[in-house]
Design goal:
The structure holds two protein chains of two kinds. Chain A is mainly α. Chain A has 19 helices and no strands. In chain B, strands 2-5-1-6 form a four-stranded antiparallel β-sheet. A two-stranded antiparallel sheet of chain B has the order 3-4. By secondary structure, chain B is α+β, with helices and mostly antiparallel strands. The chains are: A mainly alpha, B alpha+beta.
């Protein structure tokens, strides 16, 4: 059912927004239709055409909503026509939900609801926030869309690149949040990271010559290919270096590498393509020690020059440790202390390097700090085990 | 769709503005004039404001007492408003385009107007 919802919800919402000219109303109608499906399909069985079923329910509710409208008859006539398959208005919907005038968390939540058909409860659960918090976020965003007239249309050609970049950033945020929050092995719970990859795939279908979209899709697929090995049989998070690489999905890795090659053939390198290439180096390595760290370091150098960020430099330092040893890496990491003081992984990596050079006292202090800054339960548990620090 | 563009600046912006040479200042004013002209069809009206140090505030109390008059701006913000333009455009993207090309530096806040 999740797959059907994912395929149909965005189309339905896009269709209704265009006719009703009201995002908030359209979005609520589709949610209602999905709830009706959740109640009826398990009892009555999957309808022959889920699409037609959902469209009928949504149409009925849209007619109710339209009765108060001035252009009632005109819009009603349009509702009676079948949903056009082409052009696919989900693209307009995606650009509206990921509009830069909305806060990043709101972009992610709106996209999941309107384009993927998730309920507020599902989104709240996936992101470990309360339903009330999430509902508030959505209400505020929907009000702003209406009050500030955030447009439901494709960006102008000269603004398209920047806007695609913003959609990619929202999808990457969605993926990371979902990936971090997912616990693996609980099929009952919808995996937001899968939804983000599905959206990236949709974007690639709509913009087949956009190398960064392809790069982001490859990056997500590579992470998902390793997802099975992220948790052990006790449900505990396992670090990349300790993962059972036999549990990685080799076919998915091969597919993702095909995507990276396809993007590279377009000759416009970018940060997502580089990150995908780094992930591919890991995915192809038989062990942590046999990883091509030199190649990874070269890719990180390119990434730092293309999109400098302290977190990229921190990750580069991990590769540098493998190539040049802990002392050199330690110098690089220390230089980031001011910028990354609030980032738990900075302190975790710093602690590891300090321990390697025998600075055990300092290392312990960094471990405590890392744990204090970690909010994700799975990461907390991992840090506690790895760092052998009592909960504070 | 109507919006008001609020042209704001921080204390640093004000200092940078003060530090401009007469030639630079003239250049900046010329650019702002060009922007105003180029966007003329979308601008309903607008003004540059005198600095916040010239402001007088009349504060009304909820309990209905006499209004209190004080010297200076009421809003104790890091940024102060140096001017505004009331515009009418198709949607937020068009308003954003105008704000992005604003040559006056500082920040531009875009506020939709309540429809009447």
């Amino acid at each position: 059912m999740a797959a059907v919802f994912r395929e149909e919800a965005g189309r339905l919402t896009a269709w209704l927004v265009r006719i009703l000219d009201d995002f908030a109303v359209a979005e609520e109608i589709v949610q209602d239709a999905l709830v009706a499906a959740l109640e009826q399909w398990p009892v009555e069985g999957l309808p022959e055409s889920p699409r037609a079923w959902l469209q009928t329910v949504a149409r009925r509710r849209a007619v109710d909503a339209l009765r108060r409208e001035v252009r009632y008859r005109e819009k009603l006539a349009e509702l009676d026509r079948p949903i056009p398959q082409e052009p696919d208005n989900r693209l307009e919907l995606l650009f509206m939900c990921c509009h830069p005038a909305l806060a990043p968390e709101a972009q992610v939540a709106l996209t999941l609801r309107a384009v993927c058909g998730l309920s507020s409860a599902e989104i709240a659960r996936a992101f470990l926030v309360s339903e009330a918090t999430l509902a508030q976020r959505l209400v505020r965003a929907k009000r702003k869309i209406a009050a500030a007239a955030i447009p439901y249309k494709l960006p102008r050609d000269d603004e398209l690149d920047a806007r695609i970049g913003q959609v990619l950033a929202a999808l990457y945020l969605m993926f990371n949040e979902g990936y971090l929050a997912s616990r693996g092995g609980s099929p009952a719970r919808r995996d937001i990271a899968e939804d983000a990859a599905w959206l990236a795939d949709l974007l690639v279908k709509l913009f087949p010559r956009e190398p960064e979209a392809i790069g982001l899709l490859a990056l997500m697929r590579l992470h998902l290919a390793r997802a099975n090995a992220r948790f052990d049989s006790h449900g505990q998070l396992v670090l990349l270096r300790d993962q059972d690489r036999g549990r990685w999905d080799a076919d998915a890795v091969a597919d993702a590498i095909g995507l990276i090659e396809r993007a590279a053939a377009l000759h416009r390198p970018g940060p997502y393509q580089l990150q995908a290439a780094i992930a591919a180096c890991h995915a192809e390595a038989p062990t942590w020690d046999q990883t091509d760290w030199r190649q990874i370091l070269i890719l990180y150098d390119m990434l730092v020059s293309l999109a400098p960020s302290p977190i990229t430099r921190l990750n580069r330092a991990v590769a540098l440790r493998q190539v040049a040893g802990p002392k050199v890496a330690l110098g690089e990491v220390q230089a980031l202390a001011a910028e990354l003081d609030e980032y738990h992984l900075f302190h975790a990596i710093y602690a590891d390097l300090l321990e390697e050079v025998g600075e055990n006292e300092l290392s312990r202090a960094e471990k405590v700090r890392a744990l204090a800054l970690t909010h994700n339960p799975a990461e907390q548990s991992l840090l506690r085990r790895r760092l052998a620090v009592e909960p504070c | 769709m109507k919006y008001v563009l609020l042209f704001c600046g921080s204390a640093e912006d004000a200092a940078a503005f003060e530090a401009l040479s007469p030639e630079e200042l003239q250049q900046r004013y010329a650019e702002v004039g060009q922007w105003w002209q180029a966007n003329g069809s979308k601008i309903r009206f607008g003004d540059q404001l005198q600095p916040p140090s010239t402001a007088t505030t009349v504060r009304h109390a909820w309990n209905g007492g006499e209004p209190v008059v004080t010297d200076g701006p009421f809003i104790e913000a890091k940024e102060s408003i140096g001017g505004y333009a009331s515009i009418e455009v198709a949607d937020l993207d068009e308003a954003l385009r105008m704000a992005r090309t604003w040559p006056g530096r500082g920040s531009v806040e875009i506020r939709p107007v309540v429809a009447r």
